[in-house]
Amino acid sequence: MALMPVADALAAILKDSEPLDEEMAALDAAHHRTLSRDVAARRTQPPQAMSAMDGYAVRAADAAAVHAKLRVIGEVAAGRPFGRAIGPGEAARIFTGGVIPDGADAVVIQEDTVADGNAITVTEAAVTGRHIRPAGVDFRQGDVLLKAGNRLTDRDLSLAASMNYPELPVRRRPRVALLATGDELVMPGNEPGPGQIVYSNGYALRALMRREGAETIDLGVAADTMAATTAGIRAAREVKADILVTTGGASVGDHDLVKKALDAEGVAIAFWKIAMRPGKPMMHGRLGSMRVVGVPGNPVSSYVCTYLFVVPLIRTLLGNTLIHHRRETAVLGRNLAANDVREDYLRAVIEARADGTLVANPVNHQDSSLLANLSRSQGLVIRPPFAPAAKAGSACEILRLPE
Known about the structure:
Elements: H1 6-14, E1 22-26, E2 39-40, E3 50-51, E4 55-58, E5 69-76, E6 90-94, E7 106-109, E8 113-116, E9 119-122, E10 132-133, E11 144-146, H2 154-162, E12 167-171, E13 175-181, E14 185-186, E15 197-198, H3 201-211, E16 215-222, H4 226-238, E17 243-247, H5 258-264, E18 268-272, E19 276-277, E20 283-287, E21 290-295, H6 299-318, E22 327-332, E23 343-352, E24 358-362, H7 371-375, E25 379-383, E26 395-400
Parallel strand pairs: 5-6, 13-16, 13-17, 14-15, 17-21, 19-23, 22-24
Antiparallel strand pairs: 1-12, 2-11, 3-10, 4-6, 4-7, 5-9, 8-9, 18-20, 20-21, 22-26, 23-24, 23-25, 25-26
Helix pairs in contact: 1-6, 3-6, 4-5
């Protein structure tokens, strides 16, 4: 079977994946959720012209000259509009957020006045419109300020509240079930026996998927038997997972049972094995509405494959405006040999020069089991199939890893 190119594999995974259903989320629960439709302001902000400073609301023509004297006829506080208009030679004491009274068209700040009983003397000439926030200066009713597909930031929540929304329409979180396989795996905190290793993949993968807005379900570690692997696949269906991610067991050894179990359960396999390093023994299929992505068991391979393929799938199901990872240009920090038939994703330390140029230094050891190198890397250098040898200082493409 020919190895599938990376771009074709990603297209197959994203094919026929529509955004999930809409649900309403209270503002305090909406942070980092994805909007399912545009949201327009329900009100104008501010609804009326308001003072931006503490001072006096005046007619600019009456206070255009230094030493002009005005009679103070009342007070305007935030939330307590004034009951009458400002006439010639009059002023009203006003505080920040107070509604500008009819007749007034400027605010003289209190530092630019001298008060004497019920009168003030202006020490700085007034200018029409100064220190006034006009009605609608922030937004107007009907303005679409939050767009479908945007992932809500903390500032967006404040804006939504100001637009008078107690809750927002968002996409349901994708439910991602993670099933590890392998007799060799023991949980952290336990002493590995002969030939065993500590299970590590799930912690990074679940954190990565939660970071993208998914709900994760840990199905644990299945033993290397058809019965255990099949039970794990059925458990994913029982919890109504939108995506099942399996780690390990996807290669061609006698104990690599994931593909066999998926076939036995009726999963329609779209591809198995891709032209990529790390991550060649990756597979994808569908079981009804559940998408299945089988990533290799080696820690680096499982992480890179999840980052490159599962993350865009989660974003697609959320209806995000940003689905694909953004590629950046950098220069190589060291020489690289020519590449072979597979597309390489090299772990690299990314540094910025004083002029802003990014320098990518691929780590010396790219073995897919080396977690220490993955942990200290900030990005991946992309090497296309059959790329010629490249010297330090030559241009390259990189993907940043999540911080």
